[in-house]
Design goal:
Blueprint lengths: L11 E6 L19 E2 L2 E2 H11 L4 E6 L4 H7 L3 H9 L3 H11 L3 E6 L6 H6 L2 H4 L4 E4 L3 E4 L4 H12 L2 E7 L9 E9 L2 E9 L10 E9 L3 H7 L10 H11 L2 E5 L3 E4 L3 H13 L5 H13 L1
Parallel strand pairs: 1-4, 1-6, 4-5, 8-12
Antiparallel strand pairs: 2-3, 6-11, 7-13, 8-11, 9-10, 10-12
């Protein structure tokens, strides 16, 4: 495959976080699903930190109604900082300050739930036709090299849009967008087409698109060309299909673990496995689980 060495550096990321989180009711009646903690950190903070660890400089979070808690979390908290300072809780004070100093984070509201494509298109002015990383907040990645960084490395080598993919069981292909692709390198695939939630019989592969994308700036023009699909929503997949016909597009099978924190079982998996990795609580938690299983 011919490498396209000319490319614009990916400096910006979009995190669509306007979903209602109905799968986690009643918890999400008043609390944004992205703010539900995994161990002691809101799910969305894992996503922001993944982007920053990959070298992203600016982040846009697309929010909906009743999502002000996300803005507040990444904002400065004068009252809490003052109280922690008075009580001499320096370690906690530093944790709170670090959150508000993480990055240059912007917010925009998606007034109606009109689909992932519509949410990404809210970042048009923010992106200024530059290539962007898109990270879905339900997907928690635990990788030695951040998932989005692995994809950025592929982008920087080939200068093409990159989709994060993972092999799934055949009976699960109908739950995902699936790529029609052929291998062209180690863990890299040339994308010919994308199919949204195909049946097992119609699926071109078992390579599922997970919630990570590196997309060239052309995507914003294409999002204005496509028509709303099922449920009147603007589908990102439809715009990506057009992009794949006009430009080279790759898929990267990243190395690491992936948890669907928008699913109750996936959320519990993430909580248990990430807790076990913690030096402060991991050993004690592991002993507890062993005792629990022996009862």
């Amino acid at each position: 495959m011919e490498q396209q060495k000319k490319y614009q550096k990916v400096r910006k990321a979009i995190i669509p976080a306007a979903g209602l989180g109905t799968r986690f009711l009643p918890a999400t009646k008043a609390l944004p699903k992205e703010m539900i903690p995994i161990v002691d950190k809101p799910a969305i903070q894992y996503i922001v930190e993944e982007a920053l660890d990959a070298g992203i400089e600016e982040i846009l979070i697309v929010i909906g109604r009743d999502k002000a808690a996300i803005e507040d979390h990444f904002d400065k908290s004068f009252e809490m900082e003052e109280e922690l300072d008075k009580k001499g809780k320096k370690e906690l004070l530093q944790i709170v300050r670090n959150i508000s100093n993480l990055a240059d984070i912007h917010f925009v509201r998606q007034k109606s739930p009109l689909g992932l494509g519509h949410a990404v298109n809210k970042g048009r002015i923010f992106a200024e036709d530059e290539p962007v990383a898109v990270l879905l907040p339900d997907e928690i990645m635990d990788c030695e090299v951040p998932c989005i960084k692995q994809m950025l490395d592929v982008y920087e080598e080939y200068g093409s849009s990159v989709l994060g993919v993972r092999e799934v069981e055949k009976h699960d292909v109908s739950k995902y967008g699936i790529v029609d692709a052929k291998p062209c390198g180690e863990n890299i695939y040339q994308v010919k087409d994308l199919v949204e939630k195909p049946s097992f019989e119609d699926a071109p592969s078992n390579l599922a698109i997970i919630g990570r994308y590196i997309i060239t700036g052309e995507i914003f023009h294409l999002l204005n060309e496509i028509q709303p699909g099922a449920g009147g929503e603007l589908q990102l997949t439809d715009a990506l299909r057009l992009l794949a016909k006009r430009q080279n597009m790759l898929a990267c099978a990243f190395k690491g673990n992936r948890y669907d924190s928008g699913d109750k079982f996936g959320f519990l998996q993430a909580t248990v496995e990430l807790a076990l990795k913690r030096e402060d609580i991991g050993p004690r938690f592991r002993d507890y689980l062993k005792e629990l299983l022996q009862e």
